[in-house]
Amino acid sequence: GAGVSQSPSNKVTEKGKDVELRCDPISGHTALYWYRQSLGQGLEFLIYFQGNSAPDKSGLPSDRFSAERTGGSVSTLTIQRTQQEDSAVYLCASSFPQRGEDVNNANYNEQFFGPGTRLTVL
Amino acid sequence: GQNIDQPTEMTATEGAIVQINCTYQTSGFNGLFWYQQHAGEAPTFLSYNVLDGLEEKGRFSSFLSRSKGYSYLLLKELQMKDSASYLCAPSDSNYQLIWGAGTKLIIKP
Q1: Binary contact (B87, A48; C-beta < 8 A)
Q2: Quick check: A116 and B99 CB within 8 A?
Q3: Are strands B32-37 and B53-57 parallel, antiparallel or unpaired?
Q4: How confident is the model at residue A1 (pLDDT cuts 50, 70, 90)?
């Protein structure tokens, strides 16, 4: 597709259930990011993929959160045993791979965001 | 540590000019982005500075001083649709964007 897509757009679940959120990045973008944004707050970094590997998982809030990426494309973020504090908008972004020689080219560093998944845990 | 500082909220009048400041401390630096985020929507790219100076794009301009760890976004001829949050995001030594909490800009008629 032309942009980053995410599904579902909205998810309501009961506390304790597992949820899977999906992100489909822009074709050709090998870098993929997951963020979380609570109402009225800034972006909270969760995890970064370069290809299928995740060099930076430092933002995952607990071991209930995991993410994978296969084929260097689609990524899924899984939250196990959801809690009410997990309620937020989960945003995915993709970009070209970061390379030093491209630093002057915004297109290689710019992150393109999907519309997000609004997760509500009851 | 890495830190971004922006005002939490600003108010301006339609047709006026507003400047949103951002100071940052990062481990290394590879440019700085400004994004716009309307309520309930995803952030969208506004501007990118990697060298010192002013970059102008229509009604929006962005300035960078690397030695001072300082940037600003200047919005001219404000329109009601400019009401949004504006996010300052420098890129660190690993080319990761470090996100500030954003400045909520309220435009009044």
Answers
A1: no
A2: no
A3: unpaired
A4: low
Any A CB within 8 A of B106 CB: no
Best mutation site among B36, B45, B97 for testing chain A: the one with the most A CBs within 10 Å? B97
CA dist A33 and A25 (Å) reads 10
Give the closest of A41, A48, A109 to B48, CB-based: A109
A103 contacts B102? CB cut-off 8 A: no
Nearest CB among B91, B95, B100 relative to A42 is that of B100
| Residue whose pair of structure tokens reads 């200047």 in the numeric block | B74
Which residues are CB-contacts of B56 (< 8 A; sequence separation ≥ 6)? none
What is the per-residue pLDDT for A32? 92
Confirm if A98 and B84 have CB atoms less than 8 A apart. Answer: no
pLDDT digits (tens, 9 = 90+) for A4-56: 999 999 999 999 999 999 999 999 888 899 999 998 888 999 998 988 888 78
> What confidence tens digit (pLDDT) does each residue in A45-65 have?
999 898 888 878 888 999 999
Residue type, B99: W
pLDDT band at A105 (very low <50, low <70, confident <90, very high): low
DSSP classification of residue A62: S
Helix (H) or strand (E) holding A108: helix A106-109
Task: Check: CB of residue A93 under 8 Å from CB of residue A80.
Answer: no
Say if CB A80 and CB A114 are below 8 A apart.
no
Q: How close does chain B come to A42, measured CA to CA in Å?
A: 4
